[in-house]
Amino acid sequence: MGSESVRLVLPFGHLGTGPCEVTTLYRELRHPLLRYLVCLGLSADEAQDVVQDTFLALHQHVTAGGSKENVRGWVFRVAHNRARNRQKSYNRRFAAELDAEAVSMAHEVTPERTAIEKERSRQLKEAIDTLSDNERACLLLRAEGLRYREIGDALDIPTSTVSDIVDRAIKRLAERCHE
Amino acid sequence: MSECPGRLIAWLDTELPSEEAAAIEQHVSSCRMCRERIAMYRRIDADVRAYRKSVMEAKFHRRAGEWLLASGAAAFAAAGVLALFTVVPPAQVAPPPGPAGPLVARPPVHPNELAGLVPPRVQRAEVQAVPKRVMKPSRTHRAASATGLADLNWVPAEPAIEIVIPAEAVFPPGAIPEGVSFNANLTIGADGFPQRLRLWP
């Protein structure tokens, strides 16, 4: 490049410190986090906003020397709390309608689904909606691969209670979907 | 097993200490009720996986359809600027005036922001002294990053390069208010060719 070349900012020096860990965690957790948030009831836009806010907060947490113990639990806890705050300030009926539309759209995308599968999905959706907040969150976090300790940290509940909550949630779903 | 229903699911999730897990495994091998319960857990797990998949497909594929035009327009604009790089010799770029100072003195940049995965909200807060409209990440910008399930799995190639171009180097004189800069995220693939270019003011 000559004297007329564009000056470039190459922050390689920053890749070896805290922000690199955030990059790794972002790649690992972005999709599971998005999936968890939309299953909680957020729209796709809201879920992406929450994911971005969460990783910005993680970046600030890491660069400020915050604890790196159980970071996965920390990330899901921040995202979970932000999702809850959004849901409290929005009309819950609006979120519910979006979920219903989401299930309906899924059926339209795969028209070959049988009537039995459609009914099963509808039953499961209704059953999940009847779970308590903790039951639903424990089930979905467990589905994203979090360990019980991480789930406990994310939801601020004792780790020893997570297994009982998950068991109760699964039993309730089974009673509604397979009766 | 009925006195502690959570122990069975904890055993299934490999959450128990090894001694306790071994005891439960031995019990399960001789208890039909517990085996039926485990089968129920697995059935519901499969149902929940299918539910999660359907919700994701519905919410992100539906948006992909709505944003097809917007992402196409953004891609066209990005391609135009990229062509400008390759066809028009790059002009001398002077550092933007004001408290931001020279380019190399910019505050540390988050690698994710370089790849355009996270909008540079921190950076926007730093350059508020420069008179310009601070924008939230637009639907167009997000459309370029999440138009469907395929983008959810997109991983940027490293390293990403950030280019800051004063607007007067790109647009005709007077077209843009003085002091406005555009950020461009250019991601270079392993083959050396540009993979993705995103622009935002």
Task: Give average pLDDT of chain A, whole number.
Answer: 79
Specify the number of helices of chain A: 8
Number of strands of chain B: 3
Q: Report the sheet-strand fraction of chain A.
A: under 5%
Helix/sheet category of chain A: mainly alpha
Strand content of chain B: 5-15%
Tell me the series of helices and strands of chain A, N- to C-terminal: EHHHHHHHH
Please tell me how large the radius of gyration of chain B is.
26 Å
Low confidence ranges of chain B: 90-96, 98-151
- Low-confidence sequence ranges of chain A: 1-17, 92-102
Fraction of residues of chain B in helices?
40-55%
- Shape assignment of chain B: rod-shaped
Q: Mind describing the biggest β-sheet of chain B?
A: 3 strands, antiparallel
Strand order of the largest sheet of chain B: 1-2-3
Proportion of helical residues of chain A = over 70%
Question: Could you spell the SSE succession of chain B in H and E letters?
Answer: HHHHHHHHEEE
* Global geometry of chain A: globular
Query: Which structural category do the helix and sheet elements of chain B fall into?
Result: mainly alpha
Which oligomeric state applies?
heterodimer
Q: Could you give the distance between the termini of chain B?
A: 62 Å
Short description:
The complex is a heterodimer of chains A (179) and B (201). Chain A has 179 residues and is mostly helical.
